[in-house]
Design the sequence.
């Protein structure tokens, strides 16, 4: 008889995120307008660079505007907005600090997609676990600017790129979690910025090729050509081939470091020498700084690569911007007052309608008493003039007030006249 029972799902309470994750910079990477399939793929590759503190599968609609992303940024702890656009001349890349700016606009002079970078490599390094931690940012050529506008430009660009990635505490950082790096190299002569994305690989040094293959290789090498293990250890690299990069790890001392911590890879021990190799992941971009604005996609222009203005022109533009801002605030205030006034008028009209409706319902049920009209002095004087005094057996003194209609309303019962008394008149009487 009993029906099918439903299992009640237990809704777990929402757990608060750790403070380091909340304070970490988060980003939105979007596109605006029709950018084509290549720039669309470049946007996807840049989202992978910003992992894990970005919306990897963020969906956009044509009706979405920048204000939509800015409005929800505070709820999701989003601090930066990266926008890819395209014109007839070239694609552009914009970086904006949320929610108030500034905004930096770059012209994408050249770019290479991740797929093309991996296809050009003999041994590509593809590992999804690399994107579980944020990359390390390396800046080169962003210091030593001269005083003036170039100094402001360098400070803003450096601050923008630094704040896009989580800061590192050298006393608490775990080296095993630093597995990627983003390199930005600024050319002082051309002013172009080279963007590169690498994977960090650490290998032990000071070992023979056979031992290194045994320690770091994914498969056990074939030792059938040797009579004993000692012979394999003595013959350095016999039967094994090494790439040019692996040979350079042993030769170049600039790649050698002493590890202060134990790494997750095999063979890299504490306080032992290891070599660091960078394997490119993609994408590549060559950026040219075009403009820096004070707000979100607008505001005062702090730097422009193609347009130069005098101090007087800058002052006039600043004054005009302040006037527009003041006018905007005044209109907004007036609009708020108009909305408030209209709401009050609606409330009064609604109350009047409710009052009339209640009166109609009360009158329909018989509980409503119509209010008597207020008496005035003229009405009291008129009532005094209409007063009639009738005495039995005497003539009635009636004051004529000029209203014959009231005289016709005299009741016939007051004057009881029989039919006999009503005799016809003779001609003589006439």
Sequence:
């Amino acid at each position: 008889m009993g029906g099918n029972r439903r299992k009640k799902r237990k809704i777990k309470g929402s757990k608060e995120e750790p403070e380091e994750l909340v304070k970490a910079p988060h980003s939105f990477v979007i596109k605006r307008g029709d950018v084509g399939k290549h720039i669309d793929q470049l946007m996807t590759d840049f989202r992978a660079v910003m992992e894990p503190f970005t919306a990897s599968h963020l969906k956009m609609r044509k009706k979405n505007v920048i204000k939509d992303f800015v409005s929800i940024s505070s709820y999701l702890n989003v601090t930066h907005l990266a926008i890819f656009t395209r014109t007839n001349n070239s694609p552009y890349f914009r970086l904006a600090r949320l929610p108030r700016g500034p905004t930096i606009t770059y012209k994408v002079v050249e770019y290479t997609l991740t797929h093309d970078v991996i296809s050009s490599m003999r041994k590509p390094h593809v590992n999804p676990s690399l994107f579980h931690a944020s990359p390390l940012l390396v800046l080169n050529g962003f210091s030593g600017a001269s005083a003036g506008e170039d100094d402001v430009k360098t400070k803003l660009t450096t601050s923008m790129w630094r704040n896009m990635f989580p800061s590192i505490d050298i006393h608490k950082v775990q080296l095993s979690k630093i597995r990627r790096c983003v390199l930005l190299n600024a050319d002082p002569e051309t002013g172009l910025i080279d963007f590169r994305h690498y994977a960090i690989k650490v290998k032990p040094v000071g070992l023979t090729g056979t031992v290194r293959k045994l320690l770091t290789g994914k498969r056990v090498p074939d030792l059938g050509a040797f009579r004993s293990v000692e012979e394999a250890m003595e013959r350095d690299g016999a039967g094994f081939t090494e790439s040019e990069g692996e040979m350079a790890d042993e030769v170049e001392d600039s790649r050698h470091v002493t590890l202060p911590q134990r790494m997750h890879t095999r063979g890299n021990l504490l306080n032992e020498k290891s070599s660091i190799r960078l394997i490119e992941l993609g994408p590549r971009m060559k950026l040219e700084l075009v403009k820096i604005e004070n707000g979100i996609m607008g505001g005062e222009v702090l730097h422009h690569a193609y347009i130069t203005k005098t101090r007087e022109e800058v002052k006039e533009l600043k004054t005009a911007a302040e006037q527009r801002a003041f006018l905007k605030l005044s209109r907004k205030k007036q609009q708020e007052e108009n909305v408030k006034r209209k709401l009050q008028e609606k409330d009064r009209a609604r109350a009047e309608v409710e009052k009339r409706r209640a009166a109609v319902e009360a009158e329909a049920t018989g509980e409503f008493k119509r209010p008597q009209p207020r008496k005035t002095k003229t009405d009291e004087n008129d009532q005094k003039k209409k007063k009639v005094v009738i005495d039995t057996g005497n003539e009635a003194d009636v004051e004529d007030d000029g209203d014959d209609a009231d005289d016709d309303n005299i009741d016939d019962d007051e004057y009881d006249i029989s039919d006999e008394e009503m005799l016809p008149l003779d001609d003589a009487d006439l």
Remarks:
- The first helix runs from residue 19 to 23.
- The first strand starts at residue 26 and ends at 31.
- Residues 237-241, 388-399 have pLDDT under 50 and may be disordered.
